[in-house]
Amino acid sequence: MLDKGIASAINHALFHQQAPAHVRIMNAKSNAKGTITAITHQNATAEMALQYHDIIITAARTVDKGVVDVEENESWERPKIHAVPLVWDMGKGTEGLQKM
Fold first, then answer.
1. N or C, which terminus of the chain has less Cβ within 10 Å?
2. Best CA proximity match to 52, nearest among 12, 92, 86, 80
């Protein structure tokens, strides 16, 4: 419930600060260590959301006083390929990423 509360509080604050409609949190989850991971809307990046860094921290702290900072976790600028054997792009003579 805490995770949904944080996402809701952040989205409410972003709305009131007139952030673009796509800059919203779609999902927030906490792990066993207490780290909260939030996923942005599919049309927004973490970089876009972090333009509202102070607003996000303030809103998250209304639900969980233990929130210390907000930072980008993934930039997704590198290609990610799933279910393709790694040996296709590794080893002498394969040309690796250049081939892709």
1. N
2. 12
C-alpha dihedral (12, 51, 71, 80), degrees to nearest 10: 100
Backbone angles phi, psi at 82, to 5 degrees: -110, 145
Does the pLDDT value for residue 96 go beyond 80?
no
Neighbour-count burial of 63, counting CB atoms closer than 10 A to its CB (0-12 exposed, 13-18 middle, 19+ buried): buried
pTM higher than 0.85, yes or no? no
Q: Where are the domains of the chain?
A: 2-99
Per the structure block, which two tokens stand in for 21? 């409609």
Share above pLDDT 70 across residues of the chain, in percent, rounded to a whole number = 71
- Could you tell me what percent of the chain has a pLDDT over 90? 36
